[in-house]
Amino acid sequence: MSYAKTMFWGAITAVALTASAVQAEEEGVQLLFVQTAAGMQAGDGQLRLVGVGEQTVYFSDRPYRVAGHLHLDRFVNGWSTGDDSFAVNPPNAVLSVYGAEVAEENALVVIELASPVIEEGDLLYSYKIVDGEMPAEGGATSLFIDTFGPGGGVGAGYHGVGVGRRGPGAAGWAGVAVRNCNDGDC
User: Fold this and answer.
1) Rounded to a whole number, what is the largest CA-CA distance in the chain?
2) Alpha-carbon distance 115 to 82, whole Å?
3) Which long-range contacts (CB under 8 A, 24 or more apart) does 76-81 make?
């Protein structure tokens, strides 16, 4: 594809994503986040996602069916941006951990997250337990993070991720992948 065609389709995509984001904001979409890691370690109020994936996936519930992903550093960098950011109003999350030795030994823990930091391929959070028992270590790990949108979530530091009080919609930053099944393309 020629440079001109690439730029044309890039501009069309940006306009379409912005239109979807405005519609999502008006309709009150809430987005949930998912992060995955090869393993985890926890102690003294610190959670380490070992070998964390480079992308954070987000999605909404019916009827909107918005889904996409953003690079981990963009998620972390936007944590404290905005009047009602995750730094101001920390999200709850569910941590799903398979045992370090036997995959059938798994744990589910509800936690409140704070202060994410990327460190040498790992992601560190401060946490408080809401429900359950935190394992000291574990194998394959998924972290399901509370919504943002009306009533929850991340600030405008995501440069276009989020809706309602905590952000302007799911569009506008490089590397985004968004799919809105209400547009009939699913």
Assistant:
1) 56
2) 15
3) 76/116, 76/117, 76/118, 76/123, 77/157, 78/154, 78/155, 78/156, 78/157, 78/158, 78/159, 78/161, 79/115, 79/116, 79/154, 79/157, 80/155, 80/157, 81/154, 81/155, 81/156, 81/157, 81/158
Structure tokens at 26: 């008006």
Helices (H) and strands (E) in the chain, counts: 2, 10
Q: Which residue has the tokens 């359950």?
A: 132
Q: Model confidence over 75-112: pLDDT tens digits? A: 999 898 888 789 998 999 999 998 765 556 688 999 99
CA distance 181 to 136: 40
Contact 139, 39 (CB under 8 A): yes
Quick one: pLDDT at residue 104? 60
Residue type, 134: M
pTM metric for this prediction: 0.68
| C-alpha dist (Å) from residue 59 to 5, 21, 44, 56 | 30, 13, 31, 10
